Amino acid sequence: MLRKWIISIILNAVAIIAVAELFDAVKIEHFGYALIAAFILSILNVIVKPIILIFTLPITIFTLGLFLFVINAITLMLAQWMMGDTFIIDGFGWAILAALIISLLNTLLERLVKDIAK
């Protein structure tokens, strides 16, 4: 379980670096800070995200789950706020786009790792 979590953090850091390279509006100093950001995101996803999800459940249901992208952007903005100047996102719109791309990249990378590990 710990091994899976560590692999997930590394893959998330790779996705964060990829998004930072893809968009000028997302900046991160280097891979070490991306690992820290991925770790913070994993903690926020376990603690804060469920609380936000409970409070926003009606709008999430009404939008057929699309509001989850906003929730992911909120957790990403919280992580960048905690990181200070080492991880910068230039606005909430960019955070939504970054959260979407990070989610897609995480899904692809986890499938690749799972296929390689077989």
UniProtKB/TrEMBL annotation:
Keyword Cell division: no
Sequence intervals crossing the membrane: 30-48, 55-79, 91-109
Pfam families: Phage_holin_4_2
Keywords: Membrane, Transmembrane, Transmembrane helix
Annotated PANTHER family: SLR0284 PROTEIN
Name by which UniProt lists this protein: Phage holin family protein
Lineage, highest ranks first: Bacteria, Bacillati, Bacillota, Bacilli, Bacillales
